[in-house]
Amino acid sequence: MRQILPLLAAALLPIVLTAAEPAPAVPPRYEIRADHDPNGTGKFYLGREIAQVMGHRAADWLERPEREEEEQTEKMVDALKFREGEIVADIGVGSGYVARKIAKRIGASGIIYGVDIQQEMLAVLAKRMAMFRITNVRPVLGTVTDPKLPPASCDTMILVDVYHEFDHPFEMVAAMTRGLKPGGRLVLVEFRGEDPSIPIKTIHKMTEAQVKKEMAVHPLDFAENISMLPWQHVLIFRKRADSAATDDCCVAPTSRAALLQRPAAQ
Ligand SMILES: C[S@@+](CC[C@H](N)C(=O)[O-])C[C@H]1O[C@@H](n2cnc3c(N)ncnc32)[C@H](O)[C@@H]1O
After folding, report:
1. 57-260 — its CATH code?
2. More confident residue, 221 or 14
3. Residue 155 · residue 130 · CB < 8 Å
4. Among 23, 117, 139, 220, fewest CB within 10 Å belongs to which?
């Protein structure tokens, strides 16, 4: 026995040591840096600094008369070939400048969820939709981590000049992906970060490579870059058809009837 005990202790030693070792540290998803762009938040995600959210007091800038010439949103919306009856979410809808153009294409049988985190912006949206007699846009108050949309409900989600200012980009894309139907489109319209001649602050632009890097951690496949706009790229991703299995909230697609009965805002 005296001979066996040291052997047993030696055999158990690595197990005891392993159990006492601390778990490897998981790197934090976001990083705060003191040295950063004065127009940014100092919060970084996958090497990119997150921009400050555009306040509701600047809503008039979204409706500036020169916008159509600079961004050609009619052309952009046409290129996306929305179908009659589509269920769309305009995330970071602002005053609804783009939403009201989509509203015409999808017709009365379609729905646009106009999601924003600023209640004041949703008030501007409601006023403008009433002014244009548009009835298929539903305001939804989201949070910085959740657009509060029904699971697997949307054919298309569009974000025009919004993604780069998400405070929690990982959580938002995860939640948006859950809200897309399998095969549904996620459309990101961002000012081209590759082009220094575009007169927009660097922090409010994104490169195609950076957008792809950030989407690659989600069950999304890159489909296309529609590069016909003067200043922006239109990057289209599709939710993987088999990804519903990993979405614990995506039990079954929401029926059209349920969507139409959904309250205007939460
Ligand atoms: C620059 S504006 C763009 C508005 C609109 N897409 C347009 O092009 O006219 C950005 C909007 O995104 C909203 N926003 C920022 N973070 C958001 C989030 N996590 N979820 C929803 N909206 C958000 C802001 O409140 C603001 O209204």
Report:
1. 3.40.50.150
2. 221
3. no
4. 23
pLDDT tens, 10-44? 444 444 445 567 777 887 999 999 999 999 999 99
163 lines ligand 1 (CB under 6 A): no
- Give the ligand 1 atom nearest the CA of 121: 27
Ligand 1 contact via 125 beta carbon (within 6 Å): no
**Average pLDDT of the chain, as a whole number:** 88
- Non-local CB neighbours of 150 within 8 Å, separated by 6+ positions: 179, 254, 258, 259, 262
Provide the 3-class DSSP secondary structure of residue 15: helix
Backbone angles phi, psi at 189, to 5 degrees: -105, 115
Q: Ligand 1 pocket: which of 116, 120, 137, 231 to mutate (most atoms <8 Å of CB)?
A: 116
User: Is any ligand 1 atom within 6 A of the Cβ of residue 73?
Assistant: no
Amino acid at 87: I
**Residue 98 Cβ < 6 Å to ligand 1:** yes
What is the pLDDT confidence band of residue 119, given thresholds at 50, 70 and 90?
Answer: very high
CA angle 75, 64, 209 (to 5 degrees): 55
Is 115 a pocket residue for ligand 1 (Cβ < 6 Å)? yes
* pTM metric for this prediction: 0.86
